[in-house]
Amino acid sequence: MAEKKAAVQTMSLRQLFKDNIRNYSMFLMLGLIFVVFAVMTGGVNFSSRNISNIFMQNSYILILAVGMVLVIIVGNIDLSVGSICAFTGAIAAMVYNTGLGLIPTIILTMGAGMVIGVFQGFWIAYAKVPAFIVTLAGMLLFRGLTYVITNVSPISLRDDQFRQITSGFISIPALTVDRVHYLAWIVGAVLSLIVIVAFVQGRRNKIKKGFEILPLPAFLAKILFVVGMIALLSWKFADFRGVPMIVVVLSIVVGVFMFITKKTVIGRYIYAVGGNARSAKLSGINSEMVVFTVHVIMGSLAGLAGLVFAGYMNSALPQAGNLFELDAIAACFIGGASASGGIGTIIGAIVGGLVMGVINNGMSLMNIGADWQYVVKALVLLLAVFYDIYTRRKAGLA
Amino acid sequence: MSENILEVINVTKDFPGVRALDTVSFRVKRGEIHGICGENGAGKSTLMGIVSGVHPFGSFEGQVLVHGKEMKFRSVRDSEKVGLTIMHQELALSPYLSIYENMFLGHSRNRFGIIDWDELIVRSRPYLQRVGLKDRPETIVSKMGVGKQQLVEIARALSKNTELLILDEPTASLNDEESEQLLNLILELKKEGLTCVMISHKLNEVLKIADSITVLRDGESIRTYDARTEEVTRAMLIKDMVGRDMKHLYPERTPSIGETVFEVKNWTVYHPEYHHIKVVDNASFHLRRGEILAFCGPMGAGRTELMMSLFGKSYGSRNEGELFVKGTKMEFSSPRDAIRSGLGYVSEDRKSLGLILIQDVKTNISNSSLKKLSRYGVVDSFAETDAAERYRKSLNIKTPSVLQMVRNLSGGNQQKVVLSRCLLAEPEIFIVDEPTRGIDVGAKYEIYCILNDLAAAGKCIIMVTSELPEAIGMADRIYVMNEGEIKGSLDHDEATQEKIMHMALS
Question: Is residue A172 within 8 angstroms of chain B, CB to CB?
């Protein structure tokens, strides 16, 4: 027994910091940008209303970024997602307007996105046409089809229920006292508890099996950070109108795909194929299937994003989704994905998307126009990726 | 003028977590051929990186002196300015450019940025003549063999007024005949006054041409021999390299051979792009339980192509013929099928076909067996780490942790990672392609032991190898291939290098 205890290994703090500097600095960058804008807007961007707004304004980009990072990890790119958003948004509006109800609309729209993913995935994975070409064609194709099915005019929605997906809030009147929505606090508390239990359990398991663990201070700091973030959001949501519906949608998407990429076999296959496709193939991985699956996922998520965007605009616009693909791609790269494949994380893509979202939002609050927003976003993308390459080279990983 | 063209004094270089070089010193005299030997991971390549400016001044401690003057190279360009050229193990030619374009790439004289190509062709000729390359300067390099490409590299070095040429494993991808030619060329160039530093695993080659030999071990310079004044033997070098005596290059083994497990009949493979060319022509062979087979033959004999096409059509546009596993006729349409039927394949090209360099040791080992290490599609990370640890111990993979990136491991250890991955999938028929290429003596011996253990455990092994002594030392039977055909087979007892060569060339 004494031997087992001796076998518990903790990583040194220094090594830990070195290995994760990129991850830490990503969060740090997001925090810093937030604080800078908080100062420049006199704290407006930290208001409860604005926090909810940031999520709503960027929800569709974040959903796209989750799919896009998978595409980038397998070493491909998807230029068609903006057009697919417009197309599926139009389909969502048309389906909803037949009176079929919200749930069938969601299923059918994501289904349409999935079919598009199957179509593009087939050309990319099995016909071996480069993804860049296939999705460039898809970008034109689905923009064209959107114009065809909408007659180049917006489709308005028959009632206000649809937009609740993006702009709605969840709150229980019985739990709302003095305009404080205690539901948010309860959800936050439950989530915090789950996080703490999961972390402690995982650590115990590792100790039991003699695996390397985080040093205690780092472990506590990690829990504190996650719980702190949950508490912060709970506070903000409780203060405004309750938990935004879109945050729930986003959490589910992010949670599901974090689990897939970190824990599942298919997740591993995605990284393996992106890291070295030929080696993966010789290892017995069906790399065509993996690439195909990733594009199907991307298509489905683009369908969801199209739906969410239609909800945000409260109508389906023929020119919707313009340049979404570039925002999603930029989010992935700011979040540390590698253009040559094999490297990238869901959480990175989300943080990357939020970095750009917070910049957009902050500049809008300061009444700076879209012209300068483009300029600033461009510089952030360039510098973030440069920093990424620079730190990797320093760590001897380039 | 100093007698030493190059002096390295007390150089120490650290990489994150590893000390690659520890107070290394050596001298290269003008006009000599200086051999550098050492196991993989001994620090040879790092040392050459420092000498040539790949690792810039300031990133290491110690001094580099050229012509007796201390040099502070910031890049490879700086070292080339003082007449020092390094030729890397991997060829650095641009494949779709011609010979002369490659030769003058990066240092073509031009007038206001405009290059006179015709003049370059004329200028390239004497250099090509010196290295004995008869092809037209306009030939596209990707259409030539590796041996000739190597000559282009040397011609390129000569055209840069090189005084000291560093060759990193120059014969690694050459066959015997081409190696011989290259070594003779180096001797020839020495007579013309060129100084050479040659890094090689092939001790025979070093002993043949080197005037002095420095041995590195674990980042330290162990000693320098002067081959002109003292007798240097292979055994002495090996002893210095591994720090112990190596009595036997190949471990002892008593084979116990059972029934036929794997059989191939009339196997023909067609070229992936030129569909009418047969790369493997009507090959038939069989493999029995507990047996080690070797496939020998010159480069381009079709050995790798045969094995890869058997391993789930990983090579070729199409193939004909029959394949039996334990008497049952099989059709594999992908490596996955082959692995499921108990085949395992370790590629000759570790870096581009074997490993995923940007992933860690653990993930590389588990990639083939995730189905086994998971439940309902969720990977059991504990089982995975356990498996990786098990192989780290049993195969003696030298790495600080299984979470280390594979790219940071030395060649021999990388090869063990690929072997581990293959072993974890528990194949019965184990195809290893050049398992000891680019690996030092100590690691070679360990890999031989692993293969022998597998055979003793009743697995069947096919070893593709270009080194005849290895085939003779290890195999129970040897198939000799050339020009896509199996020319014949030899039993362990009757096999000699001469017989194999005769058979290949018959």
Answer: no
